[in-house]
Every structure is written in structure tokens, then in C-alpha cells.
Amino acid sequence: PVWVPSIYVFTGDDGNPVIRLPEAASKKYSIRFMKEDGSLLFAIPKITEPYLTLDKVNFMRSGWYHFELLEDGKLKEKNKFLITRDY
User: Cα(28)–Cα(51) distance, rounded to whole angstroms?
Assistant: First the structure.
């Protein structure tokens, strides 16, 4: 299977993860971030901003991170994104 980048959660030009949810004010979104082995890294229980940039230091190291984006408690998307190392 070919990996297809998410339109909701992706790495921005500055290397920081971005969450883009245009309907965040009117819908209930939450997200869970997991390490590559599937263990939970952290979660955001309520997202109210339509565009949110996270600092990549929250992810501790470069590599692939998985996420589960939920809308009203139901899985909207399960995908992954890459955090690159600063040089």
C-alpha cells in the first residue's frame, strides 16, 4: 500500500506538525498521537482552533508518528506523519 498524506494532520514547512480542521468551532474533535510501536505519546481531548501548529519538540525525536483523529468520538482518520531532524 502507498502512504497518502493526511489533509488534516501534516508536517508544515517549518517541520512542525499542523492540525487543520476548518469546522473545529462547530464540531467536537480530539486526537491521539502514538509512537511507531503504537504506544500513546499524548492526546488532545478537545480541538477548538481551525489551524493549530504543534511544536515538534513534543515528539521527542525524528521519525514517523501515528495519529487517530476523532470527530464526535468516532474515528475520522487514522494515519501517520514524519518529523524530520533539524540540521
Answer: 14
Cβ-based neighbour number of residue 21 at 10 Å:
20
For residue 58, the SS3 value is helix
DSSP state string for 24-35: TTTS-EEEEEE-
Contact 32, 43 (CB under 8 A): yes
Contact 8, 78 (CB under 8 A): no
Please write the tens of the pLDDT for every residue from 10-21: 999 999 999 999
Q: Is the pTM of this model over 0.85?
A: yes
Q: Which of these, 87, 36, 27, 26, lies nearest to 63 by C-alpha position?
A: 36
Query: According to the model, what pLDDT value does residue 86 have?
Result: 77
Question: Which cell is 59 given?
Answer: 515528539
Question: What is the C-alpha separation between 21 and 65, in angstroms, rounded?
Answer: 19
C-alpha cell at 46: 478537545
